[in-house]
Amino acid sequence: KCVTWVPLFPAKVKKISRTFDSTKLASPVCRSRSTRQKLTGLNTAHVLLVFQSTYDRCPLELVRCIKHILYTEQRLVREATNSNSPVGGMMDSMSQKYQQINQAFEELRLLTQDTENDLRKLQHNQEYFIIQYQESMRIQAQLASLATLPPADRQLREPALLSKKNTVEAWLTREANTLQKYRLDLAEKHQKTLQLLRKQQTIILDDELIQWKRRQQLAGNGGPPEGGLDILQSWCEKLAETIWQNRQQIRRAEHLRQQLPIPGPIEELLNELNSTITDIISTLVTSTFIIEKQPPQVLKTQTKFAATVRLLVGGKLNVHMNPPQVKATIISEQQAKALLKNENTRNDSSGEILNNNCVMEYHQTTGTLSAHFRNMSLKRIKRSDRRGAESVTEEKFTILFESQFSVGSNELVFQVKTLSLPVVVIVHGSQDNNATATVLWDNAFAEPGRVPFLVPDKVLWPQLCEVINMKYKAEVQSNRGLSEENLVFLAQKAFSSSSNNPDDYRSMTMTWSQFNRESLPGRNFTFWQWFDGVMELTKKHLKPHWNDGAILGFVNKQQAQDMLMSKPNGTFLLRFSDSEIGGITIAWVAENPNKAGERMVWNLMPYTTKDFTIRSLADRISDLNHLLFLYPDRPKDEVFSKYYTPPLSKAVDGYVKPQIKQVVPEFATANPDPASGNPTYMDQGASPAPVIYNIFPADSMLDADGDFDLDDTMDVARHVEELLRRPVESQWSVFVSDLFTS
């Protein structure tokens, strides 16, 4: 049976302790009806009694035993089932790392317990030494008092006192050397403990916590969630507890030295140990003041936003007994650099944040100490002088969170600060696109330990592919990412290349300017602006079709023509417009209506978001009867019918509802109107409700570089309303006449 290992925390230890107390409830088992049940009940009760007698006073031993059993079982199952799986290997590596960390904590626990025992022994020996020293002083006083006695009495008593004095002094000399050795041995053990503490703290803070922060940064680009902080907090709390225990031991050793000064190097050693342990705990406290929930990295002025900061060791160090206050301030890139250099920034800020103070709260159930900023708002921003071609959406700021608190009855006072991920401040929604590009590039290519907020100016194309693929899947909320063919298309667009070989782009680099500063050749938008438009369109209107694989998308006009010409007439595909941001077009192969026997590929004018707010893509495809098969050979109804809008209901109270549809005149079926005898561009509908079409002039509808005007569409809607009031016999001819003369 596979058992999932669950970390056991103090709350669960208490629960186990309560379980021992409840073993008395097991006695009714013995009153079972059958003999076998009675025997089983007796055995169970006996086992419970053994457990209780063994672990009642030390439930942590049971915890360690259970954890070891569960880990061993989990490891055996994993080795048997996932030995060849990359995921299994990764999980095994993670479990191995966690095991090493837990083993180090166990070693630290044993070392700390050992030094605690040695310290108690030292204290006991020193107390006995002081008693003997006082005895020596008493003998000295007795010898001094002999001077007042007659010579005969003095000679009678003096030899015994002198002998006793010599014996005690010899013992004191030996014991003083022994005490000094005990002190040195204890100091050496503390040095070993502190070395292991530093190593363990480095693993947790510089490896595990930094990796969590990196995952948090990549999550801003659409990467997987950074994961919870519970395990990290449990490790940091163990560190804090062990550090504090050793600090108290060192302070007690110093107190014993002051109580009984013995010449030697111990004073210097204890000072060094005290300095080291203080530095270790200072590093732990300042490093575990983190931002659990980052503020939005594209920050619009006058807009409410939130953030959460957390102190991972706050509960263990009892910081919540005097809840600290946290302040948030927005600062510039230059101010952030000065702050990390410990230069005096004179508490300057680069803007004003409303509701920027918050008291940290301790949550008993979770053991977390955190401050939740729920209603912050950036009232104003002060921009710095920009460099060269840098725009306002390339200027980076950061939010500084700072606080001050004390631990150990004000023994130590800490001033803690932490910086958010870089934020770009905008004042209008139109700047969001370019600001997102700045954030995306920074999150993806920021290097550990960098100077704020330097990033490489150019990166390898495969690196950028990983970034935009991650972003695309996150924005579209799809498991279908960008294929190798899609990435080749993007490379062709980015580098103005015609090569279809992916290997040709593996060593190529893309600069920030190529990404989102310089316009694509022959266009008035950048590579990122085009790609972001595709993401927005897909996210808002095309998500199900992308997930179904109905949209090829990343195909240029020539590629579409080559693909379609080998297919039957009526075959079509959907591709993103090259010439318009956030546009998608339909390309299809059909006979040329103006030249019999000639086949050609047609490209419908691109649809944009404003088009799909009027009528969905599936309904538009349904309207066009000349579209038969989705490339390569899937009947269109098989792909899109589940997204068609249901037919309108029949007339109610004598009224019928109009429906706007689209038609391409060159490909509409001319059906005779029985009333007028004139051809119209409409299909015979089964519903009695009239079906109205949006009719576009052929030259604009089929122009791939044309622009779709929402106002024209609204004019059509107004025409529809007017036509519905006219006699049915004449409305079609009037409609067409009015449309093309308006």
From TrEMBL:
Cellular location(s): Cytoplasm; Nucleus
MF annotations from Gene Ontology: DNA binding; DNA-binding transcription factor activity
Coiled-coil portions: 91-125
InterPro entries in UniProt: p53-like_TF_DNA-bd_sf, SH2, SH2_dom_sf, STAT, STAT5_CC, STAT5a/5b_DBD, STAT_linker, STAT_N_sf
Protein name stated in the entry: Signal transducer and activator of transcription
Domain SH2 positions: 546-647
Family: Belongs to the transcription factor STAT family.
Entry keyword Disulfide bond: no
Gene Ontology biological process terms, A to Z: cell surface receptor signaling pathway
SMART domains in UniProt: SH2
Keyword annotations of the record: Activator, Coiled coil, Cytoplasm, DNA-binding, Nucleus, Phosphoprotein, SH2 domain, Transcription, Transcription regulation
Signal peptide (from-to): none
GO cellular component: cytosol; nucleus
Organism: Astatotilapia calliptera
